[in-house]
Every structure is written in structure tokens, then in C-alpha cells.
Write a sequence for this structure.
């Protein structure tokens, strides 16, 4: 791949970095990242990855833009209310950077379609809003051997970890299985600071960029925990769990299946 | 005895199980917490039989579901 004059100018602030250079920018342009969810986390991740010139961005989301989304999902505008989130997100990413090829999947990620969709990508960003989906992303990435960035946000807290399946601690190493239904706080009682989604989603985008560049140290074998009120970041060291049902010594999960939605009604889903 | 919970020193009356520790620390929804003891994630089934001792490093790691919707 040869960068055009316009690309050299567009990406000049990347190219001038010795760790990136023209070669690194070409890697980004050749990179393929899947955003699972075009919501709070996917919004900033999608915008930055498009701006960075990640050549192929897939977006999977079954929902339409709702008024309650706009407090934090900065890729969607007021004029997009009622539009499919994938279309709204794709339009913004293309508008930022016409170099980017955006693939839209207006559907939910399921056990049935996940491996097929993931096979087209180098890196996956989990921007889902519920436990069954988060476990499905973790399981699908394991079986497809795709590195991914997991994240969750709630109220003023956020956390994220990067997983290289088989080589680092996975989501199930830490959180074996979805929590029981009764334990999950009702969504209508929850809530989330809008900016938090930006902080954590942007960290996820950083990991995708680093992975594509092959630069730096990924957030593997660690859970980064952020609290906005204390403005504290803590990195909790993790290691692969021999009892992990997915990647441990005697795995009990041998094929992909959908976890039951044991949480609240998704219609009221917050964050 | 002193242990560390999420990086902070905590004084406890004595040894106790992980289940007792979760109660002692007033963790409202223990089902929403994974526990790492000295770098190892504990299986939930061992919370009742695992004791925390002086000098242990404990991490309460919370399920966090949000992100999109």
C-alpha cells in the first residue's frame, strides 16, 4: 500500500511519530476492527478509529437511536433519532474519513452468526450493554482466536481489559458466568455518567490501534478500573485461571451458545 | 490483622472466610463480585471455605454490564 499525498497530510501527526511512521499508518489502513455495539463505548471508539484511518470498521447493533442515548453516545445526533444506530454511526465515520470502509450489521450478535462475522476482523471491541452479550463476545473471540477489548461502565465506574485468547487472562477467568438474575440491580435504578463512556471507549480504541500497530504493551492480564468521582485508575493484575470454564485446564464450554438474558428488561436498558 | 482490599490497608479483628469478609465489608451484592486472593481468582464455591489471613491481598472485582444501550 502506498500512501497518497492527501493521506500523508491527513495522517501527518501519526506519521511523524517514530513508533508509527508511514509503515504504521499503512498497518492501520489495512486493519479491520469490529465494534460490537454502537452505543456509549462504541461511539467514541468508532469516531477515533475512523479518524485514525483504520481501514475497515464493522459495526453491529440491532437498535435505533433513542433520545436517552444522546447524553453519552456522541456518534449519534439529535437528527438521527429513530434511525438505525449502525446507519447513524456509519455516516459519521465516513464523514470523518472517507478512507474508511464501514460494514454495517443491523442485528444482534448471536451464537449463530458470531464466528462468521468475527472471521473478517483482526480485533474486536466489546461495547455491549448486557452480560449475555459480553459473555458471548468473550466466548466467540476465544473460539475464533480474535483479540478483544472488554469493557463495562456503570454509574461513575468503568473498567476494561484486553484479551488475547489462550495467551492472557480472559473475561471468564475473572467472571466465570453471568450473575444470577436477582443479583443484578434494576436498570432503572442505575445510570451512568455520560463522559465515562468516552473515557473507557477511548481506552478501548487505543488498544485496537496499539494492536494493529504492534506497538506498546496491551492491557492484557490486567483489569483497569476507573472511578470518575475519585479520578482514580487502578490496574489489577490478573492471570489465566486454571479453573476458567472457557480457557482453563478442564473447560466446560466447548462450543458457542447464547447465555440467558437474566438481567433487566432491555427496553429500559441503562447504561 | 491487616489485609489489603483493592489496594487499601484494612484492619480486621482476625481471620475470617471470604464470605464473612464480604459481609464485614458490607458488600451489598456479593453475587456481583469476583474475588481475587493474592493474585488468584477464587471459585465462588470456595468463598465459605477460604480464609483470609494477615498480609493477604484481596481484590473485589465487580461485574459491570453497561456500555451501549
Amino acid at each position: 500500500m502506498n500512501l497518497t499525498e492527501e493521506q500523508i497530510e491527513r495522517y501527518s501527526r501519526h506519521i511523524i511519530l517514530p513508533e508509527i511512521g508511514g509503515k504504521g499508518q499503512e498497518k492501520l489502513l489495512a486493519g479491520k476492527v469490529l465494534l460490537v455495539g454502537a452505543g456509549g463505548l462504541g461511539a467514541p471508539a468508532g469516531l477515533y478509529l475512523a479518524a485514525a484511518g483504520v481501514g475497515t470498521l464493522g459495526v453491529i447493533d440491532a437498535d435505533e437511536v433513542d433520545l436517552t442515548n444522546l447524553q453519552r453516545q456522541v456518534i449519534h445526533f439529535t437528527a438521527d433519532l429513530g434511525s438505525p444506530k449502525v446507519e447513524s454511526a456509519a455516516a459519521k465515520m465516513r464523514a470523518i474519513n472517507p478512507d474508511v470502509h464501514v460494514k454495517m450489521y443491523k442485528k444482534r450478535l448471536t451464537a449463530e452468526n458470531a464466528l462468521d462475522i468475527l472471521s473478517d476482523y483482526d480485533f474486536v471491541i466489546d461495547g455491549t450493554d448486557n452480560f449475555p452479550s459480553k459473555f458471548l463476545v468473550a466466548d466467540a473471540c476465544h473460539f475464533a482466536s480474535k483479540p478483544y477489548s472488554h469493557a463495562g461502565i456503570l454509574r461513575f465506574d468503568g473498567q476494561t481489559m484486553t484479551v488475547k485468547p489462550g495467551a492472557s487472562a480472559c473475561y471468564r477467568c475473572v467472571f466465570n458466568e453471568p450473575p444470577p438474575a436477582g443479583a443484578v440491580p434494576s436498570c432503572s435504578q442505575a445510570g451512568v455518567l455520560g463522559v465515562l463512556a468516552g473515557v473507557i471507549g477511548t481506552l478501548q480504541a487505543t488498544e485496537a490501534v496499539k494492536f494493529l500497530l504492534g506497538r506498546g504493551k496491551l492491557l492484557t492480564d490486567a483489569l483497569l478500573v476507573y472511578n470518575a468521582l475519585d479520578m482514580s485508575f487502578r490496574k489489577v493484575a490478573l492471570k489465566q485461571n486454571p479453573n476458567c470454564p472457557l480457557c482453563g485446564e478442564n473447560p466446560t464450554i466447548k462450543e458457542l451458545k447464547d447465555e440467558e438474558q437474566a438481567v433487566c428488561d432491555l427496553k429500559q436498558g441503562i447504561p | 490483622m491487616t489485609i489489603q482490599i483493592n489496594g487499601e490497608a484494612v484492619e480486621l479483628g482476625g481471620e475470617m472466610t471470604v464470605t464473612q469478609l464480604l459481609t464485614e465489608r458490607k458488600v451489598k451484592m456479593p453475587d456481583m463480585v469476583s474475588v481475587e486472593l493474592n493474585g488468584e481468582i477464587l471459585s465462588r464455591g470456595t468463598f465459605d471455605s477460604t480464609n483470609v489471613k494477615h498480609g493477604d491481598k484481596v481484590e473485589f472485582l465487580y461485574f459491570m454490564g453497561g456500555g451501549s444501550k
Notes: Helices of chain B lie at 18-24. The interface with chain A takes residues 6-7, 29, 31-32, 34, 36, 39-41, 43-44, 59, 61-69 of chain B (CB under 8 Å). Residues 35 and 60 of chain B are 5 Å apart (CA to CA). Chain B has a mean pLDDT of 92.
